[in-house]
Fold:
Amino acid sequence: MARTKSKRRRQLEQVVVYPLDWVEERSGFVGAIRYFLFRKVPHDTNWFHTLGSATLTAFIVQLVTGVILAFYYKPSPNEAYDSIQVITNDLTLGWLVRGMHRWGASVFIILLFLHMGRVFLFGAYKYPRELNWLLGVLILVLAMLEGFTGYLLPWDQTAYWATVVGINLNATAPFAGPFISDFLRGGQEIGANTLSIFYSMHMLLIPGGLIGLITLHIYLVIRLGVTSPPWSQDPAGGERTEVVTAKRGLVEPRPRGNGGPP
Amino acid sequence: MADELERPRERPEHTESEVHLPSPTIWPFAFAAAVALILLGLIVSLVATAVGVVLAVVFGFLWVRQATRELRGEPEPVEAPEPVVAEEEPAAPERYTRSKFLEGTTLGLGAVIGGIVTVPVLGFAVAPAFVGQEHPDVDLGPLDNYPEGDWVIATFTSDPETGSVSRRTAFIRYNGLRDEVPSYTIISNRCVHLGCPTQPQGPPGELAEVETSAAPVTVQPTQPSGFGCPCHGGAYDIEGNRTAGPPVRALDRYEYSIIDGSLWLGKPYSVGHVDGEGAEATVFRFEDAADPGVHMDGPEQILYPYVP
Structure:
């Protein structure tokens, strides 16, 4: 603090800080981001702890490439196969986006299992993180459903017969089985309805559920803290000792709750 | 700098008691209802309009009178101090309070509205898969394509609207006359394990295309010793009875009819098992075709109360 800042520098800082300040005062957004980013983490976390965020990255890649593919894919029995041929062979870089989506799906599932294995072997599912394990299991189930519904969309022989067998596997479940299979097929025979239903589930229903579950999953990670490895001397996670608001950061603290208009 | 920033904690008191509010009144609502009646009357009957005009004038006058009472210097009628009376009653301490009632009403109304929106949407999402399922009959072409005693692999379009996705295959054998009535054995190629296409175990013959009244049908003669499924090794004998592997019942069959010298395929149905052979076979059948893998007979059938 010995050097005093030049006037120009202070003006520049003002330019940056003012909009942030404006947002912070009205939303508390900056504080929330600081709460999200600046957490206490055990000092001996290692590369295995990155598997979770790697899975998240794979999921985001699936989201982005999936949205782009949806621009050009046509979910009707007469057009689906041809539209995929167009995506792969004719559209600029279509082969790349489809390839990323197709192989990224496998990467996503593989990373899910690796992440699950890390959590299991590190004992990170234990108190107080049981709920997060359960959320993770639901995410795994939905991810498998994404794989199952996405497999039909190329609408070739592999897709058709894999889905025939997959739906009939569902039908063998006691009591609810035939009911589920009728719903998945959209009737008693595989046809146009099946493709529409699978497409809708693949790009709307299940991703929506996944996004919600992943949000909850990450919220619990932030709330409970990152686990330390089993050999660590550090406590897992740990209480937040400092008050994480925008106290000493870019933005001035604002009294919240009693400073606004009546 | 930031730490020293001191903000006024207390703001000047500004409570609702100081805000002037007009006393509650019913007349604006009555006036609005009267105007609505006028508009309704313009469509329905002029008598209603007249009544509406009269009511609007009366209620409008009352509203104006009420609103200008203060200006005209009349004292506002002091409401009876009901809350005070209520508080003095010691007998009802756990009264169902107004806020509780409003909370319950809001939640209840929300549930009703949510239900009104959700139930049709869910119904629309789920119900079409279960209602209005029909199997249109399929023309398989003239009878002489199906010679007596021989098996023919017939591939046909079961639903022309759906197109090539609905291509299905059946194994057809003409058994000759039984009690003066032509008898056919028509077995679906859908494996009753998980729905893969079964193959006839025998040499295939020449493919031929048969023109019909609808989509063309492909026929191919064969001499099978039985039927086998490539997926998981399910094996069936020549009547469709399971002989080995994971299938849970015999192969499904089709009903048939003969119209103007052509063989027509009816709806498929599931079969428990078949005794005997050819025209003399006794088929233990069920009304409709169930999904593959669903037990139709034996003790396991209690696990599948819903069969499509």
In short: The two ends of chain B are 75 Å apart (CA to CA). DSSP finds four helices and 13 strands in chain B. Chain B touches chain A through 35 residues (CB under 8 Å). The mean pLDDT of chain B is 83.
